[in-house]
Design brief:
The complex is a heterodimer of chains A (273) and B (427).
Chain A: E1 7-13, E2 17-24, E3 29-36, H1 41-56, E4 63-69, E5 81-82, H2 85-96, E6 102-106, E7 111-116, E8 122-127, H3 136-146, H4 150-157, H5 171-183, H6 188-210, E9 216-219, H7 226-236, E10 240-241, H8 249-266
Parallel strand pairs in A: 1-4, 4-5, 6-9, 9-10
Antiparallel strand pairs in A: 1-2, 2-3, 6-7, 7-8
Helix pairs in contact in A: 2-8, 3-5, 4-6, 5-6, 6-7
Chain B: H1 2-7, H2 18-34, E1 42-45, H3 53-58, E2 61-64, H4 66-75, H5 79-88, H6 97-105, E3 122-127, H7 132-144, E4 147-152, H8 165-186, H9 192-214, H10 229-232, H11 234-238, H12 243-262, E5 272-277, H13 285-293, E6 297-302, H14 323-332, H15 340-353, E7 358-364, H16 368-371, H17 374-384, E8 389-394, H18 404-421
Parallel strand pairs in B: 1-2, 1-3, 3-4, 5-6, 5-7, 7-8
Helix pairs in contact in B: 2-12, 4-6, 5-6, 8-14, 9-12, 13-18
Classes of the chains: A alpha/beta (273), B alpha/beta (427).
The structure holds adenosine-5'-triphosphate, iron/sulfur cluster and magnesium ion.
The site of adenosine-5'-triphosphate has 23 residues of chain A, from helix 3 and helix 4.
Chain lengths: 273, 427
C-alpha cells in the first residue's frame, strides 16, 4: 500500500495576478491557479493557495514545502522561503521547454529578459527601468480606454494588415494616443497591433542586452496574448516557445525550487513519499 | 576579570569610530561655512571633481561644494522642498538634482536642512567632464553676482590615459594666472610657504587615503569600499591640505588595520565581494546599503569614492615642489574627465586586483557624466568578460526615482545568480 503523496507548491504573487502551481514528488505539474492580486496581497496569496489545494484535492499536510515568488513574495505568510521571479521563470521555462536558453517574461509591471544555461539557471538578466511602457500594463491601459477585454485586444490585433505607429513611450500617454489614432480614422485592429509593436520593440531591446540565444521561451501573462506572440516572432524572425502553461512559469519554477530545497535540506530524496 | 574581558568578542562598534570622527569633522566644516561671513571670511564655491582647494586654503577662502551640501541635505531627507522650488522656477524634472538643489539653495529666503547657505564670493569653475557645471555656475553668477574663475580642463583623450605635457602646462598656467584674482577677492596676499605647506599636507593625506582604500584587497575585506568609503571620502574632499585631514586618515588606517587583525567587518561575514560603479542613492542610503548588506556582501573597490581624486591609479601625485603642475595633473585625471574605455578598464582591473565576484552599477537619472555609457560597461563586463554585472537605476538626490520593491527584486535576483556561480545552489 502506498503512503500519501508529498507535494510542493509555488505561489507567484505578481503585481497584477497571483499564480499558484503544485508539483508532485517527481516534479510533475499537478495543478495551477490564477486570480487578480488586488489590493490585499496577503489575502490574495492565501486564497490562491487554498484554491490550488482544493482543485488538486490535496490537503495542506501533504505539502512539504512552499516557495513564494513575485513582488509579494515577502508577504506570503505560509511559505517556507522566497526566490525571485527571475530565477523562478527561468526554472519554470526550462522545465516546460528544456531547450530554453533565453526567457522573456512579460508581466503586468515588469518585463524581464533572462539568459539561462542548460540547467535552467540564470546566467544574466535585464529588466525594464522604473516605467510601465514595455509591459502588460501598457496593453491593459489601452484595453480599458477602448472598453475591450484583454483577450479581445490580442485577438483583434491579429487582423491588422497595416499597423499604426504608436509613438508614445509612456503607458499613460499611450491611452490618449490610442483614442487619437482612432479619431483620425485608423482601423481598430491596426491601432491595437501598433501598440503591440511598440511593446515588442522595447522588449527586444532588453533581449539584445542579455543576448538572444535560441530557444526563446516567452512567459508571463502576456505570453497568452496571440497578438504579442505574432509581433515578437515577426520582429525576431524566429519562433517562440509558448503554451497555456507559460503563464505559470514563475509559480511552477517556485514549486520546483521548493521540491529541490526540501530534498536538499532533508537529504531524504523521495523517501518522504 | 581582565582575561574574561579581553577574550569576549569585540563588537563591530569598537572598530567603527572613524565614521563618528568623520561626522564631527563634517560638522565643524559646516559650522565654519555657516559662520564664514560673520567672521569676515570669503566663501568660494567649487566642484568635487578637480578642485584645487589647496589654493583656497592659502587665501583662507572657505570652500562650499554644492554637490556636498545637496547630498547632505538629501541624506537627511531635505531634498523635496528644494527640488520643488527649482521646478517652480522652471527647471525640468530631467535636470540634474544637484543643480536644482544648488540653485534653490542660494535663492533668497531659502533655508535648508543644514541651514542658510552663504552666498559665494567667487565661483571656481573647473570644467572636468561635466557639461552641466558650466551652466550651473553661470546661473549662480546671475543669481548672486559672484565672479566666476574659470579653469578649463581638457578631457583625457588617449586610451592609455597619457596626457600631453602641453595639457598639463595649459591647466597649470591657468592656476598661476588665477592668483591675482584670488588675491583681489580675498584681500589676502599669496604666500608661497603656506601654499607649499598645504600641498605637503594634501600629499600626506592622499597617501594615507590610498593605503586605506587598498585594504579592500584583503580577504575578508575589512570595510565596505563603497558604502563606508562614501563616509570616509568626505575629509579628502572638504578638508584636504589640513592637519585635521591627515589625522583622520591616520586614524582610519589604524582602525582598518585593527579590523583586519580582529577579523571584523561591516557584515557578519564576507560572502560576496563586489565592485561598485556609480553615484549612490542618498535619500535612501541606508536602505539601499541594506539590500546588499543582508546578503553579507562587501564592496571591495568602487569608482565613486575616487571622484575626489583618482589616487589609486598612479595618474597624479601632489608634489609641493611642482605645485601647479601636480595640481593640474590631479585635475585632469578627474573620473568623469576620463574617456569611457579607461573607465571600463579600471573597473575590470578592480575586479581582478580585488578578486571580486561581480559588479554593481548604480545609474542615476540626474547625471549624464556618470551614467552615459554605463549600459555599454555592463554589456562589456557581462558578455565579453563573463563578469556578473547588475545595472540598477534611481537617482542620487531625488527620492521620486527610487522604488525599494523594484530595486530589491533586481538585487535579490543578482545574488541568486552569484550564489549559483559560487556553487551555493541558487537560494
Ligand atoms: N488571457 C490573457 N490574454 C491576454 N493577456 C493576458 C492574459 N492574461 C494576462 N494577460 C496579460 O498579462 C499581464 C499580467 O501578467 P502576469 O500575471 O505575468 O503579471 P504579474 O506577474 O502580476 O506582474 P509582474 O511580473 O510584472 O509583477 C496583464 O497585464 C495582461 O496584459
Ligand atoms: S550632472 Fe553629474 S557630474 Fe554634473 S553636477 Fe550633476 S551629478 Fe555632478
Ligand atoms: Mg510576474
Amino acid at each position: 500500500m502506498q503512503a500519501l503523496r508529498t507535494y510542493f507548491a509555488g505561489i507567484d504573487a505578481g503585481s497584477t495576478y497571483t499564480k499558484g502551481a503544485l508539483v508532485d514528488d517527481r516534479g510533475a505539474l499537478v495543478e495551477t491557479t490564477v486570480d487578480m492580486t488586488g489590493i490585499n496581497i496577503v489575502t490574495a496569496t492565501k486564497k490562491a493557495y487554498a484554491q490550488l489545494l482544493e482543485k488538486a484535492g490535496v490537503s495542506e499536510g501533504q505539502v512539504a514545502y512552499v516557495i513564494g515568488t513575485g513582488y509579494g513574495r515577502y508577504r506570503i505568510t505560509f511559505g517556507n522561503t522566497q526566490v525571485t521571479e527571475i530565477s523562478c521563470h527561468a526554472k519554470g521555462a526550462h522545465a516546460l521547454f528544456p531547450g530554453t536558453r533565453t526567457v522573456l517574461d512579460m508581466g503586468g509591471q515588469d518585463t524581464k529578459a533572462i539568459r539561462v544555461n542548460d540547467r535552467g539557471e540564470v546566467v544574466d538578466f535585464c529588466m525594464n527601468d522604473k516605467c510601465a511602457a514595455g509591459t502588460g500594463r501598457f496593453i491593459e491601459g489601452s484595453a480599458r480606454v477602448l472598453g475591450l477585454s484583454l483577450k479581445q485586444v490580442g485577438t483583434l490585433s491579429m487582423n491588422s494588415s497595416n499597423p499604426v505607429k504608436v509613438s508614445s513611450t509612456c503607458a499613460v500617454f499611450a491611452e490618449t494616443e490610442t483614442q487619437e489614432q482612432l479619431a483620425w480614422g485608423n482601423k481598430l485592429e491596426d491601432v491595437l497591433y501598433g501598440i503591440h509593436v511598440s511593446i515588442a520593440t522595447r522588449s527586444i531591446g532588453l533581449l539584445r542586452r542579455v543576448g538572444i540565444d535560441p530557444e526563446i521561451t516567452f512567459t508571463g501573462g502576456v505570453s497568452q496574448n496571440p497578438g504579442m506572440i505574432r509581433c515578437l516572432e515577426e520582429q525576431l524572425g524566429q519562433k517562440l516557445n509558448t503554451s497555456p502553461l507559460t503563464n505559470f512559469c514563475g509559480a511552477l519554477g517556485a514549486a520546483l525550487f521548493a521540491r529541490e530545497k526540501y530534498e536538499n535540506t532533508t537529504g531524504t530524496g523521495r523517501s518522504a513519499a | 576579570m581582565a582575561e574574561a574581558a579581553s577574550s569576549a568578542p569585540l563588537s563591530f562598534d569598537n572598530f567603527d569610530k572613524a565614521k563618528r570622527m568623520q561626522g564631527e569633522l563634517t560638522k565643524r566644516y559646516f559650522q565654519r561655512l555657516l559662520t564664514a561671513k560673520e567672521q569676515g571670511r570669503k566663501v568660494g564655491y567649487a566642484f568635487v571633481m578637480a578642485n584645487p582647494i589647496e589654493l583656497f586654503n592659502v587665501f583662507d577662502i572657505v570652500p562650499l561644494y554644492p554637490e556636498i551640501t545637496s547630498l547632505n541635505i538629501s541624506y537627511r531627507g531635505g531634498a523635496p522642498p528644494l527640488i520643488s522650488l527649482s521646478e517652480e522656477m522652471g527647471y525640468s524634472t530631467d535636470a540634474c538634482g544637484y543643480v536644482k538643489m544648488g540653485v534653490a539653495s542660494v535663492t533668497e529666503g531659502t533655508s535648508t536642512s543644514i541651514g542658510v547657505l552663504p552666498k559665494p564670493d567667487v565661483l571656481l569653475l573647473t570644467f572636468s567632464g561635466c557639461q552641466i557645471y558650466i551652466h550651473w555656475w553661470e546661473q549662480l553668477h546671475y543669481q548672486t553676482g559672484a565672479e566666476v574663475l574659470v579653469v578649463d580642463v581638457p578631457y583625457v583623450r588617449e586610451r592609455d590615459g597619457k596626457v600631453p605635457s602641453h595639457d598639463v602646462k595649459y591647466v597649470a598656467s591657468q592656476l598661476e594666472e588665477s592668483i591675482p584674482q584670488l588675491e583681489r577677492v580675498s584681500g589676502k596676499k599669496f604666500r608661497e610657504e603656506e601654499f607649499r605647506e598645504t600641498m605637503r599636507l594634501s600629499a600626506e593625506a592622499w597617501d594615507l587615503w590610498r593605503k586605506c582604500i587598498e585594504m579592500g584587497k584583503l580577504t575578508p575585506c575589512p570595510m565596505d569600499a563603497y558604502f563606508e568609503a562614501i563616509y570616509y571620502m568626505a575629509p579628502i574632499t572638504i578638508a584636504r591640505g589640513t592637519q585635521e585631514c591627515v589625522d583622520f586618515y591616520r586614524f582610519l588606517l589604524d582602525e582598518l588595520n585593527a579590523r583586519a587583525e580582529h577579523g571584523v567587518g561591516p557584515t557578519k561575514k564576507e560572502e560576496y565581494r563586489l565592485v561598485y560603479e556609480g553615484v549612490p542613492n542618498y535619500p535612501f542610503f541606508k536602505n539601499f546599503w541594506g539590500l546588499f548588506r543582508e546578503h553579507n556582501a562587501r564592496g571591495v573597490a568602487a569608482t565613486y569614492p575616487k571622484v575626489a581624486g583618482m589616487i589609486d591609479t598612479d595618474s597624479f601625485r601632489i608634489n609641493p615642489d611642482r605645485p601647479f603642475e601636480s595640481l593640474a595633473e590631479y585635475m585632469i585625471h578627474a573620473y568623469c574627465n576620463w574617456n569611457m574605455p579607461m573607465r571600463t578598464d579600471l573597473i575590470e582591473k578592480y575586479v581582478r586586483d580585488y578578486r571580486a565576484d561581480g559588479v554593481v552599477i548604480h545609474s542615476i537619472k540626474s547625471c549624464r557624466s556618470f551614467s552615459m555609457g554605463q549600459g555599454d560597461i555592463r554589456e562589456h563586463l557581462a558578455k565579453d568578460l563573463d563578469i556578473p554585472t547588475l545595472l540598477i537605476e534611481s537617482d542620487h538626490v531625488d527620492p521620486r526615482y527610487y522604488s525599494e520593491a523594484q530595486t530589491r527584486n533586481r538585487v535579490d535576483a543578482f545574488f541568486e545568480t552569484l550564489a549559483l556561480r559560487k556553487g551555493g545552489g541558487g537560494n
